[in-house]
Amino acid sequence: MSLYRSAAIAGVAESRLGIVPDATVLDLQAEAAIAALADAGVEKSEVDALFCTGRWGRTPQLEIGEYLGIRPFYSDGTAVGGASFLFHLGHAAAAISAGLCDVALILYGSTQRSRKERSLGVKQGLSGQYEDFAGLPNPVGAYALAACRHMALYGTTREQLAEVAVAARQWAGLNPVAFSRAPLTVEAVLASPPVAEPLGRLDCCLVTDGGGAVVIVSPRRAKTLPKRPVWLLGHGETHSHMLISQMPDLTVTPAKEAGARAFAMAGLAHRDIDILQIYDSFTITVLLTLESLGFCAPGSSGTYVSDGRIAPGGEVSLNTSGGGLSYCHPGMFGIFLIIEAVRQLRGECGARQVGRHETALISGTGGVLSSNATCILAGD
């Protein structure tokens, strides 16, 4: 079954971002939902499908549905880490295509910065016993292992990793709501305090509060809306492991399979993509994902991102919001990849708007390089 143009993104929005001590996680999701519905020109009463996940509640869909007064006909709480919302995008399109719903709302929110909820020692239940005893910090230690492997195999350098952080900061400097906007250099990234060798603090994503919302509609409903819809052309998803010790190859992520399916469904090639939004939980995540998606050969991603190629004015428009490294990262970043891609495709990004913006690829990674969903989008 193909999801090609089976659904359109009609509205996107963030809540307040950064440090929001006076808000609950429900407040932030409500703020984003209200703004996204207004952006779409859709009434809350029309929402008949609800998608959300997060560690903030035992039953997130029930809690946010009650809070917003939404009683959906279809609901999905797929939880595979930060990639979850790209999984939700494909699932919403499938549900719409099957006639199970007409207007879907994808939500996420977190107050991890204000409430100091982020922990590097999250227990992983039954499977965790096989790694916890070794003291590996989670998740940064897992990504550090992957970075070490890539360096050992291909000669990738810390300077090349730092290029990802520097480019993200340059994009963030053009984004008025980005959390970190001060200029950043490769030297500053290399000098940042070590977290897990070879990753320093500035190789790691932010810890912020924030929420996001995305409105997905049927083709029929899309024709009636005031704004230009953004169409889903291709979608692929998969997951390969829970623990980093069980990852089949530390340098090849599930984006290889998910991306191939997305490209095949969309009927496009890599050269057809104008904008890339790649999950950047850590600098190494971007390098591994670019290779797994096929934008560069194995071992060549360090060169691919260097010399300003992914910075504003470079050859590749990548993570134009500033990404999880500089824009925001409320624990799970995937929904913000969708938001930025839609705004770029609509031409709504002001100073950071890229010239070519007909197509976009968004690729979300979850867990410890465990899951991936890749979506290809296009304007009307």
TrEMBL record:
Q: Which residues does the UniProt record annotate as the domain Thiolase C-terminal?
A: 236-378
Instruction: List the keywords (alphabetical).
Output: Transferase
| InterPro entries (UniProt xref) | Thiolase (IPR002155), Thiolase-like (IPR016039), Thiolase_C_2 (IPR055140)
Entry's SUPFAM superfamilies? Thiolase-like
Could you tell me the superkingdom of the organism this chain comes from?
A: Bacteria
Q: Which Pfam families match?
A: Thiolase_C_1
List the molecular function annotations (GO) for this entry.
acetyl-CoA C-acyltransferase activity
PANTHER family cross-referenced by the UniProt entry: ACETYL-COA C-ACETYLTRANSFERASE (PTHR42870), NON-SPECIFIC LIPID-TRANSFER PROTEIN-LIKE 2 (PTHR42870:SF1)
Q: What is this protein called?
A: Acetyl-CoA acetyltransferase
* Organism listed in the record: Aquabacter spiritensis
The organism's taxonomy opens as: Bacteria, Pseudomonadati, Pseudomonadota, Alphaproteobacteria, Hyphomicrobiales
